[in-house]
Amino acid sequence: MFILFFNFSTVIFAESKIKRTSSKHKFGKVEIKDLIKLTQSKVVAGDSESAEIITKAFSSDLMSDVLTLDEHNIVLITGLANLQLIRTVEMADVPVVLLGRNKPASPEMIALAEELGILLLESPFSIFRLSGLLYSNGIKPLY
Q: Total domain count for the chain?
């Protein structure tokens, strides 16, 4: 554990130990198969062999925020696991949903996602970690 005392010499020392990434980040595209491997996800519904290319990601547990999206080829990262999630991503035209924090999809969610052609994934990682992994591998944030 590192304790920061607020004096000039300690702040200089603390900043020298922080690894920073370049601000010139290369953004690109990620194929579904690579997304699954990267996030150690399990496919619970949908076609993981689809030719879908993910270019952007959005993390939210608020479905009202998801309804405001006007983007295509995105992945929604969420910890919300209920039937309303699938209904919302259907209306928002979101092709891929990534459930974080080991949240299991219910049988009803899986059936509806299959019916609607939504790729539903489950990952053991936190929402924060999933977002960081995708960002560091070239996926743009929506905002």
A: 1
